[in-house]
Amino acid sequence: MPPVNPSATSAPSVLDLAPVVPVVVVDELGDAVPMARALVAGGLPAIEVTLRTPVALDAIRAIAAEVPGAVVGAGTVISPRHVADSVGAGARFLVSPGWTESLLAAMAGSGVPFLPGVSTTSEVVALLERGVSEMKFFPAEAAGGTAYLKSLGGPLPQARFCPTGGITSGTAPAYLALDNVGCVGGSWMLPADAVAAKDWARVESLAREAAALAQVS
């Protein structure tokens, strides 16, 4: 049986949780909980922790256990093992930069919503054929940006996207204004100097500004 649309699960769609999903790279495990608390306090409950560092799974586990209101997910999911490990750590959604048949099957069988990555029309059609209509568009800016997504809306209106990759606070509103975009992914609310200084108040303030984009898009 082919994968099914993640929106058909009992969990809410990732695309509808907040206008912006912070894409988080956790280098120091001790940063995970205060960072997530700042993001949630700022109005961004869906947090994608990328599996790019040795502490990523422990960070997901800590956020899931210690940050009420956080909907923590795993990003850069590129193998069935990643799927199993992420869900085991407490991830409530999965995001991949691309997909293969085995990865798609593992995500579909995980029991949590998932956003497989696409960057071409053929990939979108292939997922729609398999019953998946919610996707990550990556790398958004390099793959054609808002013009490309707007063009997809005509022939493929059933596909909805979370564009990620190169998006900033300045470009996010143009993406959010598109009918086929539910949210965007980005990391501009987590500037490196603020994270290094553990300036969680600044992160919360930037998160609040990002959450407010829903009112102007």
Automatic annotation (TrEMBL):
Keyword set, alphabetical order: Carbohydrate metabolism, Lyase, Schiff base
E.C. code: 4.1.2.14
Reaction equations catalysed: 2-dehydro-3-deoxy-6-phospho-D-gluconate = D-glyceraldehyde 3-phosphate + pyruvate
Stored CDD domains: KDPG_aldolase
Pfam families assigned: Aldolase
Molecular function via GO: (R,S)-4-hydroxy-2-oxoglutarate aldolase activity; 2-dehydro-3-deoxy-phosphogluconate aldolase activity
Protein's pathway: Carbohydrate acid metabolism; 2-dehydro-3-deoxy-D-gluconate degradation; D-glyceraldehyde 3-phosphate and pyruvate from 2-dehydro-3-deoxy-D-gluconate: step 2/2
Membrane-crossing residue ranges in chain numbering: none
NCBIfam families: eda, PRK05718.1
Protein family (similarity comment): Belongs to the KHG/KDPG aldolase family.
Subunit structure: Homotrimer.
Protein name: 2-dehydro-3-deoxy-phosphogluconate aldolase
Organism: Streptomyces anatolicus
Gene: eda
